[in-house]
Design brief:
The complex is a heterotrimer of chains A (170), B (115) and C (93). Chain A has 170 residues and is mainly α. Chain A is built from five helices and three strands; from the N terminus they run αααβαββα. The chains are: A mainly alpha (170), B mainly alpha (115), C mainly alpha (93).
């Protein structure tokens, strides 16, 4: 069995496991009938969609399987960042001293999933919204702009999140 | 135990009220869609997340609490997706962000206007 | 105390939703209306969760979960529709 066949099999199995987990979450029962329907459905849907779920060009398992403890820690830290930037946002709304501007910068994360999670986290915290994501180039609407220099703006907007995300994915 | 949980829930509900009112004020105060989206996410994300935490603290049965936790986890993904769709729509239709007058800007040091 | 807090937060969600509807009616451009719609949909989600916790019924929270996951499809459809309309030759408002 050559490498690409093996890689397809691995992607198929991971897609089926993810679909089965969602099925168990929604059905919430472990009766044999519902379990068999879930397994058959997961296998059929995974055979149709595993190419879209995990792209062929992803380098290895490490690029999309997160480290679970680091991921849990990251979501907790994200909630803390949410409250911190909400507080600054509230003061800005009440005082009216803002400086909205569009900045461009690049990210150092390598896998597609990690970049998607980074732009999602940037949008989740009030004060920054990702407008566009091309490969590693992010366009961000920043509400408290202090500089338009790409590297400095990138450090201020995403530096802390990227540092944590590099522990979760490659 | 019950009293402590209710006091914590009261704290989170109070913060939800504060952030929600701030978001509504920002929704009416700023003049362009990007700024309104930033201020609206204060009401649409932070206040709702505080409401979820408070509801989680006040839920009495395990089935309800587990569902609230699942809703919170999916909310981490779904809330930015909605904002991003709207912001991308505004960006693709060629809308330029509003710039406040110089006296009201906060801490901007560069000279040139364009990056 | 518990039921009082949950009821009060439901009324707060309804009050915020009314202001969002006002913004949606006032909004000069279609992007403003979409912004109000995103906030409105989050408020509806919070209301559903509060209602489910107050009545202590897991079935209501299942409805909220599905609304949470598939809620953004509506914005996607509206944004796509408006983009197609603008690119047909009409200038944006």
């Amino acid at each position: 069995m050559d490498t690409s066949r093996l890689w397809s099999l691995i992607r198929f199995i991971i897609t089926a496991i993810a679909l089965l987990a969602v099925w168990l979450l929604f059905s919430g029962s472990l009766e044999p009938f519902s379990l068999i329907i879930g397994i058959v459905g997961a296998l059929v849907i995974a055979s149709l969609t595993y190419n879209e779920f995990i792209a062929q060009h992803d380098a290895s398992l490490r690029s999309f399987l997160p480290r679970p403890f680091a991921l849990a820690a990251f979501s907790f830290i994200l909630v803390l960042y949410l409250y911190q930037s909400s507080w600054f946002m509230l003061l800005a709304v009440l005082s009216g001293r803002v400086n909205p501007r569009i900045v461009h910068f690049r990210t150092r994360l390598r896998s597609d999933l990690a970049r998607m999670v980074l732009s999602n986290s940037i949008t989740f915290t009030p004060g920054t919204i990702t407008l566009d994501l091309n490969d590693d180039h992010l366009t961000v609407h920043w509400f408290f702009c202090t500089t338009s220099h790409a590297r400095a703006a990138g450090d201020a907007v995403k530096g802390r999140m990227e540092k944590h995300l590099r522990k979760v994915w490659l | 135990m019950t009293l402590a949980r209710e006091l914590l829930a009261l704290l989170f509900f109070a913060s939800a009220v504060i952030f929600g009112i701030g978001g509504i004020i920002g929704l009416f105060r700023f003049p362009d869609p990007y700024s309104r989206l930033q201020a609206g996410s204060l009401c649409g994300t932070t206040a709702i997340f505080s409401i979820f935490i408070g509801a989680l603290l006040l839920s009495t049965s395990l089935a309800v609490a587990a569902r609230v936790v699942v809703i919170m986890i999916f909310f981490l993904v779904s809330a930015p997706t909605g904002s991003h769709i709207v912001a991308r729509f505004a960006w693709n239709s060629g809308l330029q962000p509003w710039k406040p007058p110089l006296s009201r800007r906060s801490g901007y040091t560069d000279r040139q206007d364009e990056p | 105390m518990r039921l009082l807090m949950l009821d009060a937060m439901q009324w707060f969600c309804i009050a915020c939703a009314l202001f969002c509807v006002l913004r949606m009616l006032l909004g000069p451009t279609s992007a403003d209306r979409l912004v109000a719609l995103t906030v409105l949909s989050s408020l509806v989600l919070g209301f559903l969760v509060l209602r489910g916790v107050r009545e202590n019924r897991a079935l209501y929270l299942d409805v909220a979960l599905v609304y949470d996951i598939f809620g953004f499809l509506g914005f996607l459809a509206i944004a796509r529709f408006l983009k197609d309309k603008f690119s047909d030759g009409d200038s944006p408002e």
